[in-house]
Amino acid sequence: MKKICLITCAILFCASLAFGDEVQDKLSPVATEELKAGTREMISSGINSDDAIGMTKLMLQNRFRHQLILSAQHIIMNAQRQGLPVQPIMNKAHEGMAKHAQHKDIVQAMERVRSRYAFAYQQARTVTRNSAQMHYVGNTIAQGLAAGMDEEDVGRIMQSFQHRAQEMTRADAEQLARETFMATRTMTRLGVSSKAAMELVCQALQNRFTAREMKRMRNTFMTRSRNENPTSLAKSYTNQIQGGKVSGGSVSPDMGGAGPSGGHGGSGGHGGSGGHGK
Amino acid sequence: MGRRILLIAGILLLCTGCGKHYFRLNGDTLHMYLKKSDAKSVYFSSSLDGYELHRARQVAATTWEVTLPANGEFTYYYIVDGTVYLPPCRLKEYDDFGSENCVYAPDL
């Protein structure tokens, strides 16, 4: 027993030395001891060592103030502690540096991303305990927020969803959550306002749409938005559902009941239709 | 008549600086093209690899190409002659720096 303890301690000691050496080797001599300690803390909190060292090194190369680098490290460690994905936050730092954004703005943008994911994952945890499903729904909500969804509108959608989910099996409810937030994300990415997107999916949920119908609606919406203004289209869909033309189980021909099409790019090019105003 | 010619000439002049953007899917490889008549250097940056900059290949006088693995959706933008450039694209999201990024979705 003593031997096992001794071996375990030796392994842990060697591992910590290895981390220390890696940080020391790759960040010296430009980084202060405080930054190296922050980087080691990131690694010991579970962040990939290449990512932790890489981000710190890149920020040093871009002449960030040490205080800002420490803030960036804390944002990532917070995300890690909260069980949020850290890659989108690190990506934001890289994106900001590639775009030559102000250093302060980059760190603020990283915090905005963390905050979006924190909210999105909090919502997703109310939908499912299945880790894979929760991550999928959480990421979809966060991406919808990045495209222009308001947190309040996400909350309203979630209320409608919870009401609808009471009548469903867990598996069906998880599918419906995925499709609901995918539809919302697609619409906002196409330039539909948060409110219009929320009203449409809430109306669909109130009219007992299934996951399959929600998916069909998203596909036909994408197809029709090639030639029609996405915001007008969202309002028209809402009116159709509200007017009783469409209910769960009967997607009307007006809404493209023919099902998914999703033709691929080819040589046509992107239309750039619809504004993207908030 | 003169006015009409002026109008057409004006529109043509405006469009010479415009970019056209399209893509082709070839198996599991995605080819993205940017038509930009006045560009001297074009870089592509995306969430696929942490926004690393990749020099686009000039395949015709005004056409630039990047080749990517077609495995899921990603956000992207271009840097044309040192300046961030967002081509006309259907799907967009805010970039948290006061601008936007294009979104590529396989099912678009």
What labels describe this entry?
heterodimer; A: 278 residues; mainly alpha; 2 domains; 0% strand; elongated; disordered C terminus; B: 108 residues; mainly beta; Immunoglobulin-like; six-stranded antiparallel β-sheet; four-stranded antiparallel β-sheet; 10 strands; 49% strand; globular
Q: Explain this structure to me?
A:
The complex is a heterodimer of chains A (278) and B (108). Chain A is mainly α. Chain A folds into two domains: 30-125, no CATH class; 138-258, no CATH class. Helices cover 70% and strands 0% of the residues of chain A. Chain A contains twelve helices and no strands. In chain A, helix 5 runs antiparallel to helix 6 (103-125), helix 6 packs across helix 7 (131-147) and helix 8 runs antiparallel to helix 9 (170-189). With 108 residues, chain B is mainly beta. Chain B has a single domain, classed as Immunoglobulin-like (Sandwich), CATH 2.60.40.10. Helices cover 14% and strands 49% of the residues of chain B. In chain B, strands 3, 4, 7, 8, 9 and 10 form a six-stranded antiparallel beta sheet that branches. Chain B is globular. Chain B starts with a helix and ends with a strand. Mean pLDDT of chain B is 86; it is low at 9-17. Chains A and B meet through helix 5, helix 6 and helix 7 of A and strand 1, strand 9 and strand 10 of B.
